[in-house]
Amino acid sequence: MSPSATSPSPSPASPSTPRILVPEKLSPEGLSLLRGAGFSVDNLTSPLSNEDLIRSIAEYDALIVRSETKVTASVLAAASQLRVVARAGVGVDNIDVDAATRQGIVVVNSPSGNILAAAEHTIALLLAVARNVGRADAGMKAGKWERGKLVGVEVGRKVLGVVGFGKVGMKVARMAVGLGMRVVVFDPYASEEVAQREGVELRDGLPALLPEVDFLTVHTPLLASTLNLLGEKELRSMKKTARVLNVARGGVYNEEALLKALDEGWIAGAGLDVFTSEPPAEGSVAARLAAHPKVVSTPHLGASTVEAQENVSMDVCTQVVEILRGGLPTAAVNAPLILPEEYKRLQPFVRLIERMGSLYTQHFAGGHGRGGMLGGRRFELVYHGELAGISNTRPLYAALVKGLVSSISEGGGRDVNIVNATLIAKERGLAIDEKHVRNGGAVPTYASAVTLRSLRTDEAVQAGEQVIEGYVSGRAIFISKLDRFTANFHPEGTLLILHNYDEPGKIGNVGMVLGKHGINITFMQVASLENGLTATATATTQAAGTGNGHAEKEALMILGVAGEVTDDVLGELGQSEGILDVSLLRL
Ligand SMILES: NC(=O)c1ccc[n+]([C@@H]2O[C@H](COP(=O)([O-])OP(=O)(O)OC[C@H]3O[C@@H](n4cnc5c(N)ncnc54)[C@H](O)[C@@H]3O)[C@@H](O)[C@H]2O)c1
Ligand SMILES: O=C(O)[C@H](O)COP(=O)(O)O
């Protein structure tokens, strides 16, 4: 597509090629990576309006933004196939992360790609404010030579207050120490040990820090708790000669209070890179601050270096490629971190547990069309053997939620993933406990096995318990137990599970019904109560009775079938002699 400043034009890519929208300027290294990976990329030269973004987002699988695009809940609601929102930078305050989480959309960022750039820009503003660099430059360009009016102050031997001692704050502190400044820090999460190592002094709050500083710099994210962190009361408590800096986010200083502080001389100056509205709306307080003679202002340039832009571009584009190929991000804001090798190892269990969940809903809880009676039950997912040693079982938990709701939710559970599984479980009233049984336990036969147990919440101990057990061999998945019946089958395709009296002739009767309706049996197993598998037959032929079984007791017949199993077929099977119950499963 040709770059356009307004809206994306139709992509020439084939319909199956994932599409990525980049409505802001992004370093070309990342874009080449995306295109080289075979994705279709629409990179616009300037941000889209909210309306245009809402109009076009439905066609995209990934969205990559910087700070100018507002990824609101309405944008995300229109994003029917979006899998990832990537922020080519640190701050995600322009993205509705909660809404993305609810929709199972991964949000990733570049947590450290522009940290050095932001810290250096802070130091640039510190010195520019101290030495009136902005006004001096403007004067020179206007043909003035104003030496007398522009006498500055030194920063060496002065006190710098740092609020927010995270990645940027710590780098700024180091640089300031290098400039010969004494650095005092307030961050509720900073440790004394780190402060000592960095040669800074910790303060236990703003009231203790503000009156002593000559310069103040903030490096917190913009959160409800940091909005207007520095207001009138705080600014009034500072020295009249103090100068303040903001390379974090507009709004951490209350802009009206800051304007008043500068106008009325409570403080001496400010260096501002960020504003509550960007670019500042005409006539706004932000615009008046940017134009103020005591302010050195820059248009959100903290991360705007060639190096930082290459870093963040590569960071997020690498993650987007990974996610669109079914892999994992390295810096997800709303998903737990899991190492790629661990993820790969869990994959067969993810498939197994998803099928176990789906099997549960369809076999035990009513399944298709009956609303899925999952409520009033508590689930236990028990990991045995080697699997019990895995600490990050988040993908397994998500797989169970996906499986349980797959046959009873509109999208077939496709929208359930590692990002939103807990939220969806909560919304559906699913209580799921995970247990790790390293040695022994109920399933000792396999190196790694899983038990899904469902218990009624209103009954004590094991009353009303339903059990499914499964295991993985190589990368193939098997069900080894269904309630009281020992089995061994692949949970795949269309299955019929018939609960019957274990007497001769049952298989023949069932085969006849299926044969009559032109339904092929692809495999068949009889699972018994006591001796495990009592009969196994594999067939791709037209169903025919094979007559096998034990006279007493109950058994389960598990049949893989090909052909349309209608309600009539199920009715006939249910009417067959000795059949107690029939369920149809689509796995
Ligand atoms: N201007 C730019 O171009 C630019 C570039 C990079 C980063 N940033 C912004 O800089 C800010 C800091 O980025 P970072 O990567 O260092 O983040 P970070 O998460 O590493 O650090 C933030 C720190 O703030 C602390 N904090 C939170 N609430 C606080 C409070 N009420 N009082 C004191 N400290 C508090 C946290 O404990 C944390 O240590 C972010 O807002 C980011 O968006 C701006
Ligand atoms: O949070 C950030 O990473 C910075 O504010 C950079 O924003 P930008 O990508 O719009 O320059």
From TrEMBL:
Residue ranges of every copy of the D-3-phosphoglycerate dehydrogenase ASB domain listed in the record: 345-455
Pfam families with a match to the protein in the record: 2-Hacid_dh, 2-Hacid_dh_C, PGDH_inter
Amino-acid biosynthesis keyword on record: yes
Domain of life: Eukaryota
The protein's name: D-3-phosphoglycerate dehydrogenase
The EC number(s) this enzyme carries: 1.1.1.95
Pathways involved: Amino-acid biosynthesis; L-serine biosynthesis; L-serine from 3-phospho-D-glycerate: step 1/3
InterPro entries reported for this sequence: ACT-like_dom_sf, ASB_dom_sf, D-isomer_2_OHA_DH_cat_dom, D-isomer_DH_CS1, D-isomer_DH_NAD-bd, NAD(P)-bd_dom_sf, PGDH, PGDH_ASB_dom
Keyword terms of this UniProt record: Acetylation, Amino-acid biosynthesis, NAD, Oxidoreductase, Phosphoprotein, Serine biosynthesis
Cited PROSITE patterns: D_2_HYDROXYACID_DH_1 (PS00065)
Ranges where the D-isomer specific 2-hydroxyacid dehydrogenase catalytic domain occurs: 20-334
Lineage: Eukaryota, Fungi, Dikarya, Ascomycota, Pezizomycotina
Record note on quaternary structure: Homotetramer.
Family indicated by similarity: Belongs to the D-isomer specific 2-hydroxyacid dehydrogenase family.
